[in-house]
Design brief:
With 222 residues, this protein is an alpha+beta fold. The chain is built from 3 helices and 10 strands, in the order αββαβββββββαβ. Strands 1-2-9-6-8-4-3-10 form an 8-stranded antiparallel beta barrel. The longest helix is centred in the middle third of the chain and has 10 residues.
């Protein structure tokens, strides 16, 4: 069972963190038509908990794998880091190819901190029924655009299921300890991430003000 990433700051601190820093990874939305706001949609039905088998095949080390998230706020691309996440990256690729993330929501938005998704049960505790471990280096920094995996406090550092978070402000680097597996970074569409973040009320930690649906996640290779 995946739990929410542990929040190590008070809401007062989170409310004081801005989200206007330049994206360290930059890039515009991958959509051919610019998106300026999030669509009004109904949340998909929550899915029952699943117990899947962890993938056994490794990724080709000479290939760069990216995940393209198509959401109701636009698209963004996450380029996976096989060196930092040799076990979790293959899992995310397999889950994406199986449609695990399709018709799921971002269930958590903390302005000035993170947006979080990857739980088909919409409870904040769902996952694929297995876990991988990629302990991050001791000097890991969670800067804006970093994509990492959520875990419960009881789980070992680097433990991952399917729930991921995208860091939305460099201030998180001064707060988060190196306990969450870093799987990659947003290399295109940081404006989409910012639109999702904007749906969280200042100082809040919970669902966005309207549903943000991940319609599909596509794997690209280069």
């Amino acid at each position: 069972m995946r739990a929410l990433i542990t929040l190590l700051v008070t809401l007062a601190f989170v409310a004081g963190c801005g989200s206007g820093d330049e994206a360290t990874t930059g890039g515009d939305s991958t959509s051919t038509t610019p998106v300026t706001e999030c669509a009004d949609v109904e949340a998909p039905e929550a899915r029952a908990a699943e117990t899947l088998q962890a993938p056994t095949e490794k990724l080709d080390s000479s290939t760069t794998y990216s995940l393209v998230f198509d959401t109701t706020c636009g698209s963004f691309t996450v380029t996976l880091d096989q060196k930092l996440a040799p076990n979790t990256a293959p899992s995310l690729v397999a889950l994406a190819k199986d449609g695990f993330f399709d018709d799921t929501i971002f269930h958590r938005v903390v302005p000035g901190f993170v947006i979080q998704g990857g739980d088909p049960t919409q409870t904040g505790g769902g996952g694929p029924g297995y876990s991988t471990v990629d302990k991050p280096p001791s000097d890991a920094k969670y800067t804006k655009g970093t994509v990492a995996m959520a875990k419960s406090q009881a789980e070992a550092p680097g433990t991952s299921g399917s729930q991921f978070f995208v860091v939305t402000d460099d201030a998180a680097a001064t707060v988060l300890t190196p306990d969450y597996a870093i799987v990659g970074e947003v290399t295109s569409g940081i404006d989409t991430v910012e639109r999702i973040e904007a749906l969280g009320a200042p100082g809040s930690d919970g669902p966005p003000s309207k549903p943000v649906v991940i319609s599909s996640v596509t794997v690209t290779e280069s």
